[in-house]
From TrEMBL:
<keyword id="KW-0411">Iron-sulfur</keyword>
<dbReference type="InterPro" id="IPR058240">
    <property type="entry name" value="rSAM_sf"/>
</dbReference>
<dbReference type="InterPro" id="IPR023404">
    <property type="entry name" value="rSAM_horseshoe"/>
</dbReference>
<keyword id="KW-0004">4Fe-4S</keyword>
<dbReference type="Pfam" id="PF04055">
    <property type="entry name" value="Radical_SAM"/>
</dbReference>
<feature type="domain" description="Radical SAM core">
    <location>
        <begin position="30"/>
        <end position="269"/>
    </location>
</feature>
<keyword id="KW-0949">S-adenosyl-L-methionine</keyword>
<dbReference type="InterPro" id="IPR006638">
    <property type="entry name" value="Elp3/MiaA/NifB-like_rSAM"/>
</dbReference>
<dbReference type="GO" id="GO:0051539">
    <property type="term" value="F:4 iron, 4 sulfur cluster binding"/>
</dbReference>
<dbReference type="InterPro" id="IPR005911">
    <property type="entry name" value="YhcC-like"/>
</dbReference>
<keyword id="KW-0408">Iron</keyword>
<dbReference type="GO" id="GO:0003824">
    <property type="term" value="F:catalytic activity"/>
</dbReference>
<dbReference type="GO" id="GO:0046872">
    <property type="term" value="F:metal ion binding"/>
</dbReference>
<dbReference type="Pfam" id="PF16199">
    <property type="entry name" value="Radical_SAM_C"/>
</dbReference>
<dbReference type="InterPro" id="IPR039661">
    <property type="entry name" value="ELP3"/>
</dbReference>
<dbReference type="InterPro" id="IPR032432">
    <property type="entry name" value="Radical_SAM_C"/>
</dbReference>
<dbReference type="InterPro" id="IPR007197">
    <property type="entry name" value="rSAM"/>
</dbReference>
Amino acid sequence: MNPGPAPHFFDESDGQKLRIHTISTYLKQTFGRKIVKLSLDGGFTCPNRDGTKAFGGCAFCSASGSGDMASGSGDIRADLDRQIRLLSGKWPDAGYIAYFQSHTNTYAPVEELRAKFTAALQHPDVIGIAIATRPDCLPPDVIDLLDELNQQTFLWVELGVQTIHPETSADMNLCYCVSDYDDAVCRLQARGIRVVSHLILGLPGETEDMMFQSLEHVCQTKPFGLKLHMFNLVRGSQMEKTHPNYVSFESIDDYIDLVVRMIEQIPPEIVLHRISGDAVRSTLIAPEWSYKKRTILNGTHKKLAEKNTWQGKAL
């Protein structure tokens, strides 16, 4: 009986046999040590909140702009120090990436952006920076700044495409479309800037075929990284009122099954930054199990092994 092709392992260190190309593996191989991401709230807002494009934010977004676990005292150095103190016991030799997470982190005058990003990079333990933003908030002067930073440090820019389907984008009040994403990716990649693309799985009205179409499109843009995020219904979002009983996935097993089939379709060179989603338990409505990130991750690894499959196997 033919056992089939040997599985591809992306990381076999420490007794692991990882069948997906994770960001932790990539950073460990790149820097030779543990690298930890520190979430920051830089005090920015969003064109979907201040009336430039809309009010209230994207329909699924929490009041904190999807940065419920980010530090935002107004003093970036102090916020970094506070998080590093909490983590240094577990990882005494780690390096850190300053992750500007909350709201739209390129939606400000370029000199304000420069000051905040520079403040983070001046911390002696910070080895790089990650910047989350909307694809329609990258004017030429901001691209120039990102290019400058990219030549000085390790950088990636996160773009929330979420879905390629215009009907879903309209329902979710995104106020941008897939062409904005495609344009942003082209302009960033032309400068050699790493792009990490976000997709939300289980958005209201989307079929499995629609989710796979979004995945295929994003993979064709050849991002450095990809985040798969189940839809979380959270308190403080517009959807708490409009879809109070909506549940994106009925069970962890249903979600893991979808993610494993998606992983098989993702090119192996794309780095997976996330395959689940974070929501503070005090704000989470549904799925009630989605905060169990470790359970989802372990279940995914187990399912991949049981199927003898791996990232990119179906390509």
